[in-house]
Amino acid sequence: MKTGTDRVKRGMAEMQKGGVIMDVVNAEQARIAEDAGAVAVMALERVPSDIRAAGGVARMADPRIIEEVLNAVSIPVMAKARIGHIVEARVLEAMGVDYIDESEVLTPADEEYHLYKSDFTVPFVCGCRDLGEAARRIGEGASMLRTKGEPGTGNIVEAVRHMRKVNGQVRKVVGMNEDELMTEAKLLGAPFELLLEIKRLGRLPVVNFAAGGVATPADAALMMQLGADGVFVGSGIFKSENPAKFARAIVEATTHYQDYKLIAELSKELGAPMKGIEISSLSPENRMQERGW
Amino acid sequence: MVKVGVLALQGAVREHIRSLEECGAEGIAIKKVEQLREVDGLILPGGESTAMRRLIDKYGFMEALKEFAAEGKPMFGTCAGLILLAKNLVGHKPHIGVMDITVERNSFGRQVDSFEADLAIKDVADNFPAVFIRAPHVVEAGAEVEILSKHNDRIVAAREGQFLGCSFHPELTDRHDITAYFVEMVKEAKAKQFV
After folding, report:
1. What is the pLDDT of residues A104-148, one digit of tens each?
2. Of A60, A96, A106, B173, whose CB is crowded by the most CB atoms within 10 A?
């Protein structure tokens, strides 16, 4: 009997496919998410848009909040650790969290190195903007990927950019000859063996969800159509006017992402979505997606 | 060729379809209730049972799934699918509730306790690489239920006539023995309908 194997860690993410993972800050929100059909919740102290507004250093959530959420729902519970913060990650693992997000939404603890995630029994999800970043994270042991997008903005443009970029680069690698892959590995900053594996599989070896800026059911469906395996919704749900209704609508739009009549129906009278931010109005140092190496 | 559906509301759908094709059956992702009429058997995949249940209710699948079972068509549940099939769930109300077993959810612990183990499965394989992810197990099985496999004294695979269920995820491996076993069940059930 073996725990913490790649198959077990990646398999857990496979089971989340076609589903929606929602950010929550307390037990009540976690129950709303579970009732709406979320496949997992991300326990946080503040959703990304509030982290953005608060400024300062954003850290792992208070363990009390995580414990409260763990006790409130039967679906998997994820939590965020700072990039490179070995101890925050170990603390979350010790608490029995089901998945850790080594996340650029929090202030990085290490500006050079990410966690060596293969060392952990708990699986990790990491953000990526291109195939090089995706492959480096998988190389370190990430079992699941997500686009970085631009968290807390309610603006889907960056998530679209990252999903198209990664999938375009995967298609390119799949179409290349073996003797071209080493140079491609050098250009991408990606481990060579991983590019070989991608070519052999015809896809990434782990699932890749959309994240960062999903604010409406149509946004979620758009990301599915671009090839996302599922969707993370951060501020989009509990910063909207009617979170329960919004949560249900996003779940349904993710399942039936090509049923446009249905998406029209469930987008009616949802109330106001979260107020968005135009990306160009964010100065580079305020762009969370720039964090990670 | 038999047609086998995979309930495609959420979860590991693609893997099951690939496995069905390897076994010489046609795999169809079922997203709409009407599609159930096209298939001779149905796989309920791994995923999150609470999320699937909400979508089952929302799109009126519940009655159709019960009817599908009542017509004697084979159904195979893996992990979350096993939970959907069970007549009784520990601490929760049952879902489709057609297989005479009592199932406990997440009974091996949280994700850090998820594991791989080689299993002997009666009539299927002597050493099947089983992947258990936040897995449920069968706490109690009715008199008509045949126990196919146990892990540490817990029932992890069982069959009751047209129903097959397991705690683990055959779809995450390259072994298609158990899918092939189910495809045989579908073929037999289909042959009987034409007698």
Report:
1. 999 999 999 999 999 999 999 999 999 999 999 999 999 999 999
2. A106
**The two three-digit tokens of residue A164, written as one number:** 């198209």
- What is the rounded CA–CA span in Å between residue B168 and residue B136? 8
Three-state DSSP string of B15-33: HHHHHHHHCCCEEEEECCH
Give domain limits for chain B.
Answer: 3-193
Task: Give the pair of three-digit tokens for residue B151.
Answer: 């892990």
CATH number corresponding to A6-271: 3.20.20.70
State the pairing for strand pair B163-166/B154-160.
Answer: antiparallel
Q: Do A19 and B47 touch (CB under 8 A)?
A: yes
CB atoms inside a 10 Å sphere around CB B59: 17
- B51/A252 touch (CB, cutoff 8 Å), yes or no: no
Please state, as a whole number, how many other Cβ atoms lie within 10 Å of the Cβ of residue A290: 13
Residue type, B169: H
The tokens describing A234, both together, are 């951060």
Cross-chain Cβ contact A34/B117 below 8 Å: no
Residue B17 and residue A139: Cα distance in Å, rounded?
Answer: 29
Mean pLDDT of chain A: 95
- What residue of B is the nearest CA neighbor of A12? B133
- Is B110 annotated as contributing to ligand binding? no
Q: Is A65 helix (H, G, I), strand (E, B) or coil?
A: helix
CATH topology of domain B3-193: Rossmann fold (3.40.50)
User: pTM of the entire structure?
Assistant: 0.96
Residue A191 to residue B46: CA distance in whole angstroms: 31
Q: Does B54 touch chain A (CB under 8 A)?
A: yes
- The length of chain B in residues reads 195
C-alpha distances (whole Å) from B94 to each of B53, B90, B100, B104 are: 10, 9, 11, 11
Confidence band, pLDDT 50/70/90 cuts, at residue B195: low
Q: What is the pLDDT of residues A196-246, one digit of tens each?
A: 999 999 999 999 999 999 999 999 999 999 999 999 998 889 988 899 999
